[in-house]
Amino acid sequence: VKIYEYGPAFLHAKSLIIDSWAIVGSSNLNHRSLLHDLEADFATNSQLIIKSLEDQFLKDLQNSKQVTLSQWQKVNWRQRFLAKFLLYLRYWF
Questions:
Q1: Which of 46, 62, 64, 89 could form a disulfide with 4 if both were Cys (CB 3.0 to 4.6 A apart)?
Q2: pLDDT of 16-63, one tens digit each?
Q3: Residue 22 pairs with which residues in a beta bridge?
Q4: What SS3 string covers 5-68?
């Protein structure tokens, strides 16, 4: 698994390409998104759209930096604790 952080802006949409099928949307792959949140997704098997998604992903990678485990481990423990705590709280509000 490789993790990249996109720099120029905030991207909320997620894209997934599997063989000749793709989905783009705002849903997360978790229980809350599937049952409670009002998320929208678009599924397609259009090869033209899939090629466009692949091209856009490669462009986005050019404006991203890879986050490594060693970099993450250097993050202040208070910041990591706060991030986990806020992530936990978001399910209550």
A1: 64
A2: 999 999 999 988 877 777 777 788 889 999 999 999 999 999 999 999
A3: 17, 44
A4: EECCCCCCCEEEEECCEEEEECCCCCHHHHHCCCCCEEEECCHHHHHHHHHHHHHHHHCEEEEC
Answer whether 12's CB lies under 8 Å from 26's CB: yes
Instruction: Name residue, tokens 């404006």.
Output: 63
Torsion (CA) 34, 8, 71, 12 in degrees, nearest 10 = 0
What is residue 87's three-state secondary structure?
A: helix
Record the tokens describing residue 21, joined without a space.
């099928």
CB 4 within 8 A of CB 64: yes
Global pTM reads 0.69
Could you give the C-alpha distances from 61 to 3, 35, 85, in angstroms and in order? 11, 31, 29
Coil, helix or strand at residue 93: coil
| 12 or 53, higher pLDDT | 53
